[in-house]
């Protein structure tokens, strides 16, 4: 039986970039975590130690910082597209580039003072390949909770089922959502803000009989309001809240005191796509 090299890629992971844009006394701040993965005709490095096609990962890191100075840094999608196109365009042996960016938001406190937002992280994954350019935007760690309008009953009962059906529970999750754009040119800031707003509106506005139902509503909400988005994928951990049993203390507990569970947690994952949307040109699930 022969041994063959399978799919491979390489790059620099988690390049931490902070860019200050100086406009007189008023500064702008961009805070990114950039990861790069290149693929192409790179078998010789693995098979015979021939590095003649290997752009060092150190060079990739340097390119990020140099581009940040030369081009400035605005929307993460734009910066990721710039980098991905650069690597594919400048290195003939490189046929594919995947640039992923986590973008950390800082809220302004003053002209040159900022406070890091402890909330969700904005994400971007740009893939430039022979099949095309694909832009995926997203959000991770967006923690949401509904203290009403959530029920869960009517589920399968087998010999191991102990979960009581409920018509009133807490529904909480930390949203990990990605959405694939149909094209590679849009108003990225408006698209992100609009998609985020649609996710929140669906979470708040859906009377939920399961997190699965809420997931679909959130995906459909993005597709319904953002024509530039072709497909939405969501991973929603069910952050269980267990009703505390206060009966030993002679106290009733009409859904007021909960134990916040840690693990295990339910994990609900799904894709919501627009009928007839262009196919993905690169793998992009989480
Ligand atoms: O919204 C839910 N979906 C499930 O599939 C499930 N399973 C479970 O135990 N609790 C829940 N909640």
Automatic annotation (TrEMBL):
<feature type="binding site">
    <location>
        <position position="169"/>
    </location>
    <ligand>
        <name>5-hydroxyisourate</name>
    </ligand>
</feature>
<feature type="binding site">
    <location>
        <position position="169"/>
    </location>
    <ligand>
        <name>urate</name>
    </ligand>
</feature>
<feature type="binding site">
    <location>
        <position position="212"/>
    </location>
    <ligand>
        <name>urate</name>
    </ligand>
</feature>
<feature type="binding site">
    <location>
        <position position="57"/>
    </location>
    <ligand>
        <name>urate</name>
    </ligand>
</feature>
<feature type="binding site">
    <location>
        <position position="57"/>
    </location>
    <ligand>
        <name>O2</name>
    </ligand>
</feature>
<feature type="active site" description="Charge relay system">
    <location>
        <position position="240"/>
    </location>
</feature>
<feature type="binding site">
    <location>
        <position position="58"/>
    </location>
    <ligand>
        <name>urate</name>
    </ligand>
</feature>
<keyword id="KW-0659">Purine metabolism</keyword>
<dbReference type="Pfam" id="PF01014">
    <property type="entry name" value="Uricase"/>
</dbReference>
<feature type="active site" description="Charge relay system">
    <location>
        <position position="212"/>
    </location>
</feature>
<comment type="pathway">
    <text>Purine metabolism; urate degradation; (S)-allantoin from urate: step 1/3.</text>
</comment>
<keyword id="KW-0560">Oxidoreductase</keyword>
<dbReference type="GO" id="GO:0004846">
    <property type="term" value="F:urate oxidase activity"/>
</dbReference>
<feature type="binding site">
    <location>
        <position position="238"/>
    </location>
    <ligand>
        <name>O2</name>
    </ligand>
</feature>
<dbReference type="GO" id="GO:0019628">
    <property type="term" value="P:urate catabolic process"/>
</dbReference>
<dbReference type="InterPro" id="IPR002042">
    <property type="entry name" value="Uricase"/>
</dbReference>
<feature type="binding site">
    <location>
        <position position="238"/>
    </location>
    <ligand>
        <name>5-hydroxyisourate</name>
    </ligand>
</feature>
<feature type="binding site">
    <location>
        <position position="57"/>
    </location>
    <ligand>
        <name>5-hydroxyisourate</name>
    </ligand>
</feature>
<protein>
    <recommendedName>
        <fullName>Uricase</fullName>
        <ecNumber>1.7.3.3</ecNumber>
    </recommendedName>
</protein>
<comment type="function">
    <text>Catalyzes the oxidation of uric acid to 5-hydroxyisourate, which is further processed to form (S)-allantoin.</text>
</comment>
<feature type="binding site">
    <location>
        <position position="238"/>
    </location>
    <ligand>
        <name>urate</name>
    </ligand>
</feature>
<comment type="similarity">
    <text>Belongs to the uricase family.</text>
</comment>
<feature type="active site" description="Charge relay system">
    <location>
        <position position="57"/>
    </location>
</feature>
<feature type="binding site">
    <location>
        <position position="152"/>
    </location>
    <ligand>
        <name>urate</name>
    </ligand>
</feature>
<feature type="binding site">
    <location>
        <position position="212"/>
    </location>
    <ligand>
        <name>5-hydroxyisourate</name>
    </ligand>
</feature>
<dbReference type="GO" id="GO:0006144">
    <property type="term" value="P:purine nucleobase metabolic process"/>
</dbReference>
<feature type="binding site">
    <location>
        <position position="152"/>
    </location>
    <ligand>
        <name>5-hydroxyisourate</name>
    </ligand>
</feature>
